[in-house]
Design brief:
Protein name: Pyridoxal-phosphate dependent enzyme
Number of strands: 10
Family: Belongs to the ACC deaminase/D-cysteine desulfhydrase family.
Shape: globular
InterPro entries: ACCD_DCysDesulf, TrpB-like_PALP, TrpB-like_PALP_sf
Keywords: Pyridoxal phosphate
CATH architecture of the largest domain: 3-Layer(aba) Sandwich
Strand order of the largest sheet: 1-2-10-7-8-9
Distance between the termini: 37 Å
Radius of gyration: 19 Å
Number of domains: 2
Helix content: 25-40%
Cofactor: pyridoxal 5'-phosphate
Bound molecules: pyridoxal-5'-phosphate
């Protein structure tokens, strides 16, 4: 099984009135369209983990997440597709969400850790009882993070570049994407190696350690982080929902509120503030996450 090759995400022009007024061009790379089930940046983050698990002959995959987790959803779907059993360690107490129902339908063993139990995930010894319970299974850090996750995202850059000529571009100025842990952004920064700037719209508050995580993975240059969380991860307000609705109507591109919607709204703010000079060509990364939308819209 070749886990390292993924379907090509389509790149197409993104036309919005506030981009046109500022003379900024944008194209959107649709990771939401690579697969009906294993969607978005999470599959790229899983590539190397799946290959490692396969090489090690691991019978299954274990990871952690919340009750709307795009990461666990992609993991459960990938496990089913490629013949790995899966176990998910979930934050909080048993809840019935559309995502959790999918996890169970996809055959994932779901364990609820409570809040305290979930907070212990960084402690030494956290994995030990799970490794005893699921011997030989491959453990994947929360969100598919770490260097293996970042390296898996390098392919995103190649996927965009092969399609530039198709939209009449010979080059681009920079990337714009939603950031949670910063792993995907780190992957783009690594792959670009300074060739193009990477702008991250932070979907989580600035004190969540994202800057530190990115800095540990790739150092301090080649990227910029912008606040986009609007008061907290999972905080949704009327202006945001109205903006998403208007964007979806004029572009036909579906968005969710926690990552992609917030990232585009933050892009509008920066474009209107004149951060990008006329003639800038941006590749906006659609990181997927649409399954999570069932939880709150
Ligand atoms: C997980 C996720 C992100 C954040 O990715 P990181 O690599 O953690 O920064 C962005 N957008 C969507 C839709 C996601 O599901």
């Amino acid at each position: 099984m070749d886990f390292l090759n993924l379907p090509l995400a389509p790149l197409h022009p993104l036309t919005l009135p506030w981009l046109q007024s500022a003379n900024v061009e944008a194209a959107i790379l649709r990771l939401d369209l690579i697969d009906p089930l294993i969607s978005g940046n999470k599959w790229f983050k899983l590539r190397h983990h799946l290959a490692q698990a396969h090489e090690a002959g691991a019978p299954g995959l274990i990871s952690l997440g919340g009750s709307h987790s795009n990461h666990l959803h992609a993991l459960a779907a990938a496990g089913k597709r490629f013949g790995f059993a899966t176990a998910g360690l979930l934050r909080g107490h048993a809840q019935d969400t559309p995502t959790v129902r999918d996890l169970q339908t996809l055959g994932m063993h779901v364990h609820w850790l409570g809040y305290g139990g979930y907070r212990a995930r960084h402690e030494a010894g956290f994995w030990q009882p799970w490794q005893a319970r699921y011997p030989g299974w491959h453990c994947i850090p929360e969100g598919g993070g770490g260097m293996a996750g970042a390296q898996g995202c390098g392919l995103i850059v190649a996927q965009a570049r092969t399609q530039l000529a198709g939209i009449g571009w010979d080059d681009y100025s920079a990337w714009w994407l939603a950031v949670g842990t910063g792993t995907t952004l780190a992957g783009l920064v690594l792959e670009e190696a300074g060739a193009h700037d990477v702008h991250g719209a932070l979907a989580v508050p600035g004190d969540h350690g994202v800057a530190e995580n990115v800095s540990q993975l790739v150092g301090d240059s080649g990227y910029r982080l912008h606040d986009a969380c609007r008061g907290g991860f999972a905080r949704v307000d009327d202006e945001l929902l109205g903006f998403i609705d208007a964007c979806e109507r004029s572009t036909g591109v579906p968005l969710e509120a926690l990552y992609t919607g917030k990232a585009l709204l933050a892009l509008r703010e920066q474009v209107e503030a004149g951060v990008f000079p006329p003639g800038t060509r941006l590749i906006v990364l659609h990181t997927g996450g649409l399954q999570g939308r069932r939880g709150y819209l």
